[in-house]
Design goal:
globular, 9-stranded antiparallel beta sheet, 15 helices, 392 residues, alpha+beta
Length: 392
């Protein structure tokens, strides 16, 4: 669930440049366009080129829905079933807010943002969570997310190793989401030691909230255990795009009656994420953070493990409100393909211009370098979004 580094060089110092007002470019045309026919392989989204040779290809699916939830663009199969992984976190945090615990603890926007996060385990992430635990009179020793891959921030990891410090669970990227369950349990008077048990009231509350926001029957929602130990959910890629449309526009035309009551909580979650993007990801080399920095107030982004990213588009100049969901079929353990695809999609729909692409070059074309600094291999987006009108 952590945002892991991709190939060496998969970052850009320029990406941290302060934002400036830029005009969105006209959607760009590319050479390839593809739809998946029944029984056929998913289309190639990214090619990895080493010299003049295409060394490997990443296949997958992309879907964009408009403000009414209709398919606007699709490459591959929107009906593909995927695991939400960490993209579920913002909807799980709605359960915390609606329980009353967030108001009782007077959680700030940055504190809510880190509960939606796959953060990189920097000191500011630790301090934020520790402050919450102190106010709630609970201990961080309750965290059951483990320490695998923590911290993801390279500089923090190097410092801890140099100082001989073993990272604790609070530096795990999912510690904020786990904290939400602990706080909800403490507020409700439920046991806290077993909060991660799928049968625990806190996990049942999250499942019921997620199901309602997805317009699903909780008992029919297929669940599985994520690597951090909490539940994640199987839905279609189209449902994921529509869920992030709802996150971007909680009072929009697609919201059903039994979802409308959650609009204030969803707005609070959305605004927390876009207002504190460094809490959702990290200060350095995190694409969710960089996407939200580049277009403040225009999009909300969240990656998940195994090649997943979801983006909610907030209405403004350029594209209307909408939702985007991406799945890289092979799991994309290096994350190079989902990064390249995410940036390319936002360019093709006109939200990012050429200046944005220069600033995000390390994500748009993740590159591996030889020891002498020469380019060895580069991941290159290789798809065209396909327009398709569809009601469901």
């Amino acid at each position: 669930m952590l945002e892991q580094p991709a190939l060496p060089g998969d970052s850009s110092d320029a990406a941290a440049e302060p934002e400036g007002a830029t005009e969105a470019a006209t959607p760009r045309k590319r050479k390839r366009s593809s739809r998946t026919r029944k029984g056929s392989a998913p289309p190639v989204l990214v090619e990895v080129r080493r010299g003049s040779t295409v060394e490997s290809r990443h296949r997958g699916h992309i879907v964009q829905v408009d403000a009414h939830g209709k398919v606007l663009h699709a490459t591959g199969a929107p009906a593909t079933e995927v695991m939400m992984r960490s993209t579920v976190k913002p909807f799980g945090v709605v359960a915390l807010i609606e329980s009353g615990a967030a108001d009782d603890l007077k959680l700030t926007a940055s504190e809510l943002a880190i509960m939606c996060a796959s953060h990189t385990g920097e000191d500011k992430h630790v301090r934020t969570l520790q402050a919450i635990f102190r106010r709630a009179s609970v201990t961080q020793a309750l965290l059951q997310c483990g320490t695998d891959g923590a911290p993801a921030d390279v500089q923090t990891a190097a410092r801890l190793a140099r100082d001989g410090e073993t990272p604790g669970a609070v530096r795990h990227g999912c510690s904020g989401f786990h904290a939400a369950s602990i706080l909800m349990s403490a507020y409700a008077g439920w046991s806290v030691d077993d909060y991660a048990d799928p049968r625990h009231p806190s996990q049942v509350a999250v499942r019921d909230t997620v199901a309602r926001l997805l317009a699903r029957d909780p008992d029919g929602l297929k669940v599985a255990t994520d690597n951090c130990g909490l539940l994640t959910y199987e839905i279609s890629l189209l449902e994921m795009a529509r869920a992030y449309l709802m996150l971007a526009d909680p009072e929009g035309p697609t919201v059903e009656d039994d979802q409308a009551g959650s609009a204030p909580a969803l707005l609070r979650v959305r605004d927390a994420m876009i207002g504190s993007p460094e809490m959702v990801g990290g200060t350095y080399d995190n694409l969710d953070t960089e996407l939200m920095r580049r277009r403040p107030g225009r999009l909300v982004a969240k990656a998940g493990a195994d090649g997943i990213r979801a983006i909610g588009l907030i209405a403004g100049e350029g594209p209307e409100a909408g939702g985007i969901a991406i799945k890289i079929e092979d799991g994309d353990q290096s994350r190079r393909a989902v990064k390249a695809t995410s940036v390319e999609v936002l360019a093709q729909i006109g939200l990012f211009d050429e200046r944005d692409l220069r600033m995000l070059a390390g994500y748009h074309h993740p590159t591996a370098f030889a020891p002498n600094g020469e380019e060895a291999a580069t991941a290159v987006p290789s798809f065209d979004l396909v327009g398709r009108e569809q009601d469901s």
